[in-house]
Amino acid sequence: MASIALQGVGKTYPGKEAHYILRDVGFTIGDGEFVVLVGPSGCGKSTLLRMIAGLEEISAGEISIAGQCVNQTPPARRGLAMVFQSYALYAHMTVFDNIAFGLKLARVPKAEIKASVQAVAKMLQMEHLLERRPPQLSGGQRQRVAIGRAIVRKPRAFLFDEPLSNLDAALRADMRVEIARLHRQLGATMVYVTHDQVEAMTLADRIVVLGPAGVQQIGAPMHLYDRPANVFVAGFIGSPKMNLAPGTLDPAGRLWLGNAALAWQAPAGAPAQLTIGIRPEHLQPDPDGVIDGQVLLVERLGAESYVHLAVAGLDKPLMVVVQDLPPAAGARWRVSPVIGRLHVFDQDGRRIEAGAPATNAAADAAGLPEVA
Ligand code: ADP
Ligand code: MG
Q: Is there a domain that residue 85 lies in?
């Protein structure tokens, strides 16, 4: 296994000189690390993965694998295995031959090929499928074959490009667990592209969020969830999406969302015009809640419900997740944000950290827990 390092990597397409698809992308994927690249469609996730694989030229910067620059190294000599969304299997070959294909090309002895394919088939629980051909397999089984074909070559790292997006939801959940298990079992370096943020949150050691301006934030999944660096990441990570609404800071340092004053300790120098973010799961029903609204719509999902709450002074309804019995549509309803769970951003979308309360009295005024 090997680490992968990107330094100042950029991509433009011919005729698009002025327009970088990716600009100044730099991060390192540690040996054995599982890094997930997420971002909206078209932001350059596949392009970045293909550049690491060597299938796409880079326009700027340097990519190295295990400390060696591979800018000039052809794909076959990078020692990486790529798994595509489309599976890319040979329909006329058996599963065994599909998995064995790369080893045959590399002239590995027959007995050794057989042993390797069987070991991989066992690992992926598809020993009984080895004589079938891809058209006789389900989508999940085909993806398993594609993964098996990657594993059998003992690559230095695995590159996955949305490998589960052609599967239905139940299968996707199964395969997700399978891939997590494989990562543990193989201790492999994995770079995994997805637009599914449940996959990103559950699989990643670290997530790289890509946006229109390249890398938006890099960090452990829960770090991105707890402290998104900007509005883009705040809106992208988390499901259902974070509520984002304009807020104002008055001269007394109180933060207003519509006509609700929220508990937040403004740091010195905070601007007056802000964007406030509150996750739907961090709004709680509260008879004395500071946010007062009218229930527009309730979506009952079984374990929980999504309540859409219209609040005076806000353009968009707030989304609230409740585990208990939800209120009825049309009802007046009050909620409060969970203390310490507000996200605040400046006009440029950058996160503003809350300041430390100067005194316990100030903490009390801001509704924060007292400092010991
Ligand atoms: P993602 O995988 O994140 O959905 P891609 O990496 O496929 O995005 O594409 C990133 C951007 O690069 C898109 O805007 C796409 O239109 C553009 N692009 C991809 N391939 C080419 C190409 N061969 N020529 C010009 N533009 C391209
Ligand atoms: Mg893509």
A: yes
